[in-house]
Write a structure and sequence with these properties.
The chain is mostly beta strands and about 80 residues long. The chain has one domain. About 5% of the residues lie in helices and about 25% in strands. The protein is built from one helix and four strands. The longest helix is centred in the middle third of the chain and has 4 residues. The radius of gyration is 12 Å and the shape is globular. The two termini are about 20 Å apart.
Length: about 80
């Protein structure tokens, strides 16, 4: 399976601490928008995408899995 699941048709606007965070690219994680390893259990062939945050800040992470700037939201969900 390489098709994503679209669990959230709007961005996840959240405050992240400085460091590395792993965005779920398949949409199957139970810890949205972050990866919990479900992509391996379901053999999706997909991998999480690292979000590197230099300092504590609010970010908008893609929920629809269609952003051309993934893992960041680019507004694509508004056209679905």
């Amino acid at each position: 399976m390489t098709k994503t699941v679209d669990p959230h048709n709007e961005p996840y606007s959240i405050e992240l601490s400085a460091g590395e965070h792993w965005w779920c690219s398949c949409g199957l994680s139970r810890r949205q928008p972050f990866c919990d390893g479900t992509h391996e259990e379901e053999n999706t062939g997909m991998k999480p995408v690292m979000v590197k945050v230099p300092k504590r800040q609010e970010v908008s992470l893609c929920g629809c899995r269609k952003s051309k700037e993934a893992p960041h939201c680019d507004g694509t969900h508004k056209m679905l």
